Structures are given as structure tokens and as C-alpha cells.
Amino acid sequence: MTDTATPASAASSDGSLRTESGPDAFPPPTSAHLGLAAALVALGDLALYDVTPGAAAGLFSAALILSMAVLNPFLLERRAGIVIFMVLLIGCAAFLEEPSFLALGTGIAGLAAFAVGSQPLAAASVEVWLERAFAYLLQLGFRLPVDIITMPRWAGGQRWSKAVVAAGWVWLVPLTLSIIFLALFSAANPVLSRWIGLIGDVDLHLPSAARLGFWIVLAALIWGALRGSPRPGEESAQTAVSPNHSDVSLVTNAIRKGLLSPATVCRSLLLFNAVFAIQNGLDLSYLWAAQALPEGVTYAAYAHAGTYPLAVSALLAAGFVLLAFPSRLRGRGSRTAAALMYLWMAQSVFLVASAIARMGLYIEAYALTHQRVLGLIVMALIAAGLILVALRIAFSKSNVWLINANALVLIGTLYVASFVDFNRIIAEHNVANCREMGGNGVPLDVPYMQSLGPSALPAARRYLSSHETLGSPKAWLVRTAAGKLEIELQARQSDWRSWTYRGYRLQGQKQVH
Predict the structure, then answer these.
(1) Would the N or C end of the chain have less CB density within 10 A of its end CB?
(2) Whether the predicted pLDDT of 199 surpasses 70
(3) Which residues lie closer than 8 Å to 318 by C-beta, 6 or more apart?
């Protein structure tokens, strides 16, 4: 195998282990892993992407199996491993004959058998083999992100990687999340999307998003296969022998000490504040200050584009802050980090407020629906949650306090909402803002209003009693709908089992004649 084992007692100058054996260390990958993985991704793109599977799929499968054997020669130390290896290579001919789901399933099972069959217990017991093969397939796609997150642990002994890790590690999270936020804001803001589109006018011959996604998934699966399984007689980090020495604990420590170190947190907060400032500045100009939008962009389009991407951005912001500041501010970058964090939380709350205002503009231009009411409530809850996150950190509260506080806010909201007649609110808003009533909205959707039930009767009566709708072609539709709703209301209230006080109040109001 390319990964040559080192003594378990070997340690770096800072005391961290560089071994691949032992339950608390990842077996470090080598340059051969990187080179073969890159070559296989290129081959997989050529053989599999956007084509009907055929003979090329068999060639790719054979190349993957041969690469596994080259990087993990111990897989061929046992007779069972050699037999499975030969069967797998011959099985690749099934793709040359005709690809099928049966051939694919058999190949995946054989790949798992080859990966874990060298382990003595797996070779002796079908039950153990099934258990370990299933566990191997489950973790196949996660080895790449785990190795990336724990890079400083295994890259310290690689000369080629020292400079890369030292220079780029603290910028991995800031740049990655900043790009994600920019993508969300671009989807939420037509103006920002135009600005980014100007950059896109330069033809850089970049691959499509679908192709990039294919490369990422393929690279994760190939990397997991090449990294293999534990050697016979050893328990590596790929087998969690103890809850205290598992992949989970190593990844958690890497996130705390590497991905979310004080230096990384400060850089992240600086970039995030800058990115959020761009979005909030545009909202401040076009949404709150009502400046004229660029030509070709309407307020309705500006409002509709941004509600949900902005809500997702706020949730990501809350998640990052909870990870970066697990308990209190002390030791996480001093006062600078605290000031940047509070500024970012304030910007995130403003972001949610802008999303609510956007939804209000969209409702005014079109109509109010149950889904949009729910969206307004959810965004208000997100804003309250962001405020509670900031309070939790400011007063060094526990996660239990945060969960309880959010639960109380949610329960209180649901309790109050149970007394609110949302159907009536929706109907009255749509009537008041419909085009027939002189509003800025769309024409009244009579079938939707009728679907709201008897609660829509006050809105229907208002429509019919307005002088603006006298003689309107739609008036008879509203009158017919109101008549049906009054019959429905009368039927409900006449039976004591379905009688409600809300229905009693509706009956007491003036009926349509």
C-alpha cells in the first residue's frame, strides 16, 4: 500500500500524532491518492456524464478496481481478496455487453466485498461481512469531506501541503460561505444578479452547475473507494471503536480548532459583514428609500425574487454563529470578534425585515394567500430567533436556554394564531386591494375567495356594497359566491354540534340581498 504505517508512538513537534494506526488517527492519504482520484474523475466525466451508459462505464469500473488494488495491496493478501478482485474485473464485461441495474447492483456489492473482505472476521462470517460492507457503503461518500475537514491533522507531514494548508486553511470557511451568501443574494436581488451577470458576460468557458455537481459527487465516491477500509488486524479512524475516538470527535475537534478557529471566525465575520452590507445597502436604497429601480426591473419582481433566499441566508447566519460561539465569547477572538458578530446579527435581522417588506410589496401587487401569511410568520420567527441567538451569546446562556426560549416564542405564536381568523384577513385584504376596487393589486380571484369559506362573507359584502363595483361584470360572480357561503354558514350554525361563536358573529352582520 502507498500509505506506509508509522510507529504508533511517532508524534509531531506539537505533540499531535502523525500515525495511521491507532483508533484516534486518520490514515493519511498520499500524492498517489490525489493523482489517481483526479485521473478517475476525468475518466468518469468522459465515460459517464450526459451519455447513455455503455462500454465506457465498464472501462471506468475496471480502472477504479485496479486503482483500489494499487493503493491498497493488502486487499489482495488473502485468497478471498484475489478471487473477488478477479470476479469484479470479469464482471466489468457486463457493462460491455449491456449496462443494467442488475449489473450495477452486483458491482456495488462486489466493491464492498472487495473493500472489507481482507478483514479476518469479515472473511470468516457472512454476518460480520454484511455488517461491515453495509457500513463501508454508508461512509463511502463521507470520507472526502472528513479528510478535507481534518486536513491539518494528516497534512502536517507532507512537504507539498504545508504552505497550502497554512495559507488557505483559515480562508476555507470565509470564502466558501461568502460565495454561498453571494449566490443566495444574487437569486434574491435582480440588481445584484445583473452586476454578477456583467462578470458572466466574459466567456471563461466554465463548466455548467450540473457538471460541477457531477464532478463533486463522483470525486466523493471515488475518494471513498480509494481510501479503502481498515487493514487486517488494525482499527483505523474509519472504524469507530470508541465514541471518544471516532470520526465524529475528530471532525468536531477539527471544526472547533481549524475550520472555526478564532482567526477563521474573525476573517469570516469580516467577509460576511461586507457581503451582507452589499445586500442590505441595495435593500435600503430600493426597498426602504424607494429609489427608482434600474430599467427593466419592477418592484414586484424585486420583491418576489428575494423572500425565501434571504430567509435561508439568515438561518445560515444563525447556524454559523452557534458553531463559532458554542458557549460564550471569551477566547473566540476577543472584542473584535464580538463586535463583528453583533454587527452581523444586526445585519441579519435587517435582512429578515427586508424580506418581510419584500413579501408585503409582493402581496400588495398580487394577492394574499395562506402560503404568504405563513411565510410572513416564519420570517418573523426567524428574526426573533436571531435576536435570541445574540442574547444567548451576550449573556453566556446555554443551548438549553436557547431551545426553551425559541420553543416559548413558537408556542406563543401558535397560541395567538389559533384565535385569528386568517381566512377573513386574506379575503378582506384581497378585496380591498383588487383592481375592481381601485387598488394596485390583481383582479379579484372569486373562486379562491369562495374557497376561504364563510369567513369571506364580510369581504364579499364590502365588494358588493362599493359604488366602484356597481355594474361590474364580476359582481354577479361575487354575489353567487356570497349566496353559497351564506347557505353554508346557515347549515353550520343550525346544527348545535357545528355551531361556532365566529359563525354567530358572521350571521349577525348584514347579509347580501
Answers:
(1) C
(2) no
(3) 348, 382, 385, 386, 389
